[in-house]
Specification:
Blueprint lengths: L3 E4 L1 E6 L12 H10 L2 E6 L10 H14 L3 E7 L8 H6 L3 E7 L12 H10 L6 E4 L3 H13 L3 E3 L5 H12 L4 E5 L1 H5 L12 H13 L4 E2 L8 H5 L13 H12 L3 H15 L9 E4 L4 E3 L18 E3 L2 E6 L2 E5 L2 E2 L2
Parallel strand pairs: 2-3, 3-4, 4-5, 5-6, 6-7, 7-8, 8-9
Antiparallel strand pairs: 1-10, 10-13, 11-12, 13-14, 14-15
Helix pairs in contact: 4-5
The structure holds (4S)-2,6-dioxohexahydropyrimidine-4-carboxylic acid (DOR) and zinc ion (ZN).
């Protein structure tokens, strides 16, 4: 087996559900899933049952993560439009990497639909740390326009439509500081309930091309652990677990499309590190064989949700070793932490 060494990957978009819904995931199980998937730095989203909209909620997450997390983790602050006076404290916190605004419906019900409130949030976030938006269609057009107006850095989460790629391309051409991410499920999955909804074949092709040409800068898992039972309901929870399959899916696509693995390092390390100013992680790397096939789920899952929409797929490059801050936390494919 020819192992290749990579930097510890960075996922700037995960939902670890701690506190509030630890029957789905918690900081320990979520960060173990991260290590199993080759990630050593995560950014956790604010849409918990008690959302990360206050300094107190942020402190509570920091306390819990310190107690339970087995890799590095940062946080995105959130807003419902009524907590603007807490923004300075949030962006001054070194553990905060951005502000998330939900402009469309998704898990948690924290959508801000009023353009005037979105405007006020973007105006108030007077920081070089990015504003991340869940913004589809005309909401994306609005966010791009307002981010431009106020000179804010914008990150467009989980791009899913060709029309949105076109807007992002235009914004980049105009010189705006905008980055964009795509999820593995929007690239590779055909069935399942998520927000945004899955892309059609034409959209998928445009998303893949946009990733290749750099219009889309990075890959984010949007790891959204829900139990199987919650997914099997007549009104399923939105989203899918993704931390343990993102790298393998990209390595499989690399084989199929003839991409060099260095591109994967761009999407999962170099670009997220630069856009979100993720600090260095000394003595941290992962090792895997990009040519070695494996079957998803054959050795179970680390995520507490315990399943994957890619269960049974043949992917490439299962992670074999992880050195995290000088410590061997995975050895021969087995977590030691
Ligand atoms: O499918 C999704 N699930 N999309 C999101 O934006 C949120 C996520 C979740 O928290 O479950
Ligand atoms: Zn998300």
């Amino acid at each position: 087996m020819a192992l290749t060494r990579f930097p510890g990957f960075i996922d700037i978009h995960v939902h670890l559900r701690d506190p509030g819904q630890t029957h789905k995931e918690d900081f320990r199980t979520g960060t173990r899933a991260a290590l199993a998937g080759g990630f050593t730095f995560l950014c956790d989203m604010p849409n918990n049952t008690t959302p990360t909209f206050t300094p107190e909620a942020l402190q509570e997450k920091l306390r819990l993560a310190k107690e339970k997390a087995v890799c590095d983790i940062g946080f995105h602050y959130g807003t419902d439009g009524t907590n603007l006076s807490t923004f300075t404290a949030a962006w001054s916190n070194p553990h905060v990497f951005g502000l998330k605004i939900y402009c469309n419906q998704t898990t948690g019900g924290y959508q801000i639909a009023d353009p005037a409130v979105i405007d006020a949030c973007i105006a108030a976030w007077d920081s070089h740390k990015p504003i991340l938006v869940h913004a589809e269609g005309e909401m994306l057009a609005l966010c791009i326009e307002r981010a431009k107006k106020y000179g804010r850095r914008l990150h467009v989460c989980h791009v899913s439509r060709a029309s949105e790629v076109a807007m992002i391309r235009k914004a980049k051409e105009s010189g705006m500081s905008v980055s964009a991410g795509v999820t593995p499920h929007h690239l590779f999955l055909d069935t399942g309930v998520m927000k945004p909804g899955l892309s059609g074949i034409e959209d998928k092709k445009v998303l893949l091309d946009a990733l290749i040409d750099g219009t889309i800068d990075l890959v984010e898992s949007d790891h959204a652990p829900h139990t199987r039972e919650e997914k099997d309901r007549s009104t399923p929870s939105y989203g899918v677990p993704g931390l343990e399959t993102t790298v393998g899916l990209l390595l499989k696509a690399a084989k199929e499309h003839g991409w060099k693995t260095v591109r994967i390092v761009d999407w999962l390390y170099t670009q997220p590190k630069e856009f979100f100013q993720i600090p260095d992680q000394p003595d941290t790397f992962v090792e895997l064989d990009p040519d070695a096939p494996y079957i998803v789920g054959a050795n179970g899952y680390q995520t507490k949700s315990g399943w994957s929409p890619f269960d049974g797929w043949e992917l490439y490059g299962q992670v074999r070793h992880v050195i995290y801050r000088g410590r061997e936390v995975m050895k021969e494919g087995v977590l030691t932490i």
